[in-house]
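The instructor's notes for this session suggest beginning with a concrete chain rather than abstract definitions. Hand out the sequence below and ask the class to guess, before any prediction is shown, which regions might be ordered.
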Amino acid sequence: MTQPEASAPSLAVVSPHFCSPYPVDIAIVRKLLTYAHGKFEVTDVNGNIILKVKGDHLLDAAGYPIITLKQKMLSPHDRWQVFKGESTKSSDLIFSTKRSSVLQFHTKLDVFLARNTTEKVPDFKVKGSWTAKSCVIYAGDDSTIVAQMHKKRTVKSELLGKDNFMVTVYPGTDYAFIVALIVILDEVITGRISYCSNSIRQASGP
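After discussion, reveal the predicted structure:
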């Protein structure tokens, strides 16, 4: 697998503002005891908050909505759509995601930019184990890694009811875009867990 060098072209999906010519390490804090939206905070390596998730929005550090994330209801592939700012208009669509197949044993998401209307070939792919927090995000044909997620669990974080993991975003890659993909991935996985749990309870009866 190849990784972008510092001179790699910008992969600005949300905005060039979130691209860096150098690798960027960010920490994502998921509050384990919070089940509603808004359970993520994103910090730099010094602990400064750079992004937040609140409701259906990804916000910058000042609380300004950058993008809106919407799940497409009744979609067998768990399709999500991401729009500019607070919009949900089709003209403001940035990208969409869906599971690679209805039945899968490992996490796989296909990502399509808005201009890719045929969706024959995904522009990005997400693969890996969500439970192990070892997902990798690829550009195009799986030959180029643009970001990698890895677990960072501490005794202190568990006592505080938080789940911390690190993401290395490679040069030229839009880190707001990467965070959006991770939030969607979490929603897809936790949503399916909740659905399965409810189905088991209903099947077993009172």
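Then share the key points. The chain has one domain: 16-187. The longest strand covers residues 24-31.
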